[in-house]
Amino acid sequence: MCRTVLAGHFVPKVQNEVWDEIKELFPEEVKERIKVVNEIKKKNANMVKITVKYGNTHKLLKKFHTLKSGNANKHRWSCYVRIDDRNIQSEKLIKSVEFELDETFPTNLITRKSAPYEFQMTGWGVFDIPIKITWQHWLKMGPTEVTYPLSFEGTGRQRSFIIKIPKDALAKNTDAKGKLTAIERLIRKRKAI
Question: Does the reported pTM lie above 0.85?
Answer without folding.
Answer: no
